[in-house]
């Protein structure tokens, strides 16, 4: 599928708060994918009893999920859509012939979709910082999903919590995440949007198949596979530290910032040290939600 000028994102102001064109960010996202897959026991939770024909990965990032799904299901046509698709990220990974990537803003009308060839499975993961209108996004998903098809939404809260009750006053890590959440809110990105999505999925017409909250610990979790336990926790801790490092400049340079760049850098240093040294003692964790929704079997294509 060729890029369509009418769908070009060149003139779209990006809202993604990380350096999405960098190799470091691509590596972070790929490592994050491995952590999610190991902690959830699979790369998706939708109960696909029949092999889908067409699958859509919205906000595909580095394309790792799209490639893996396409490789595991060679008869399925997989489309990954992103403002900065993998070709622009210089990701040197083999792409199966049944996997295609497209540059497009999926918050606009979906010119890459049509109701005569609907998708059977749509996958959405970690787009909190990239979507401004979730109800409309879900309406688009519903419109271009086949009857009985599944939408899986994997989103988290931009919030660091501590099991020992630590708060911003005694935790540099939590203090930084509070500052980061303010930056997101001031720029139209609701940091706790994941809490709202279940109701918005229902409002769009979907039936909820699964609603699974997941505590994501920054330290070894006994629920993780024992052979991978240390690697999983180390990668997720690194992920959180990278978020702090990569977002700090944007947070401090924002017009509504209450902290100077120098103060921000010092706080970021304290926060990453706190996360690294105290993650297990304080019980640092974040919260993710996996929601699987199904378009009713008796629905009509619009």
Helix and strand arrangement:
Layout: H1 23-40, E1 54-58, H2 64-72, E2 77-82, E3 99-103, E4 119-125, H3 134-143, E5 145-156, E6 161-162, H4 172-186, H5 197-203, E7 207-217, H6 229-253, H7 261-282, E8 284-294
Helix pairs in contact: 1-6, 4-6, 4-7, 6-7
Your description of this structure?
The protein is globular, with a radius of gyration of 19 Å. The protein has helices at residues 23-40, 64-72, 134-143, 172-186, 197-203, 229-253, 261-282, and strands spanning 54-58, 77-82, 99-103, 119-125, 145-156, 161-162, 207-217, 284-294. The protein is 35% helix and 20% strand. Helix 1 (23-40) packs across helix 6 (229-253), helix 4 (172-186) crosses helix 6 (229-253) and helix 6 (229-253) packs antiparallel against helix 7 (261-282). It has 302 residues and is α/β, with parallel strands linked by helices.
List keywords for this structure.
302 residues, alpha/beta, 8-stranded mixed beta sheet, 7 helices, globular, disordered N terminus
- Average per-residue pLDDT, rounded, comes to 89
Helical percentage: 25-40%
Low-confidence stretches: 1-14
How would a textbook summarize the main sheet? 8 strands, mixed
Mind telling me the C-alpha Rg? 19 Å
Concise account of the structure shown:
This protein has 302 residues and is α/β, with parallel strands linked by helices. It has 7 helices and 8 strands.
């Amino acid at each position: 599928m060729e890029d369509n000028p009418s769908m070009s994102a060149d003139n779209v102001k990006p809202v993604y708060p990380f350096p999405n064109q960098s190799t470091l960010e691509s590596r972070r996202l790929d490592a994050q994918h491995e952590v999610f897959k190991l902690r959830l026991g699979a790369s998706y939770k939708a109960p696909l009893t029949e092999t889908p024909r067409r699958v859509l990965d919205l906000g595909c990032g580095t394309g790792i999920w799209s490639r893996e799904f396409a490789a595991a299901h060679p008869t399925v046509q997989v489309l990954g859509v992103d403002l900065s698709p993998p070709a622009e990220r210089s990701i040197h990974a083999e792409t199966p012939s049944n996997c295609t990537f497209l540059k497009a803003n999926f918050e606009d009308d979906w010119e890459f979709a049509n109701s005569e060839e609907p998708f059977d499975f749509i996958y959405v993961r970690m787009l909190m910082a990239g979507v401004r209108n979730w109800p409309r996004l879900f309406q688009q998903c519903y419109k271009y999903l086949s009857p009985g098809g599944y939408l899986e939404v994997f989103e988290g809260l931009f919030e660091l919590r501590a099991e020992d009750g630590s708060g911003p006053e005694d935790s540099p890590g939590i203090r930084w995440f509070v500052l980061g959440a303010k930056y997101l809110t001031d720029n139209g990105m609701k940091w706790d949007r994941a809490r709202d999505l279940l109701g918005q999925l229902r409002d769009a017409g979907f039936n909820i198949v699964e609603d699974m909250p997941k505590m994501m610990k920054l330290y070894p979790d006994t629920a993780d596979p024992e052979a991978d336990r240390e690697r999983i926790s180390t990668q997720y801790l690194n992920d959180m530290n990278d978020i702090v490092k990569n977002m700090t400049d944007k947070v401090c340079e924002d017009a509504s910032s209450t902290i100077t760049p120098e103060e921000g850098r010092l706080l970021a240093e304290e926060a990453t040290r706190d996360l690294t040294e105290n993650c297990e003692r304080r019980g640092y964790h974040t919260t993710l939600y996996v929601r699987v929704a199904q378009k009713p079997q008796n629905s009509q294509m619009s």
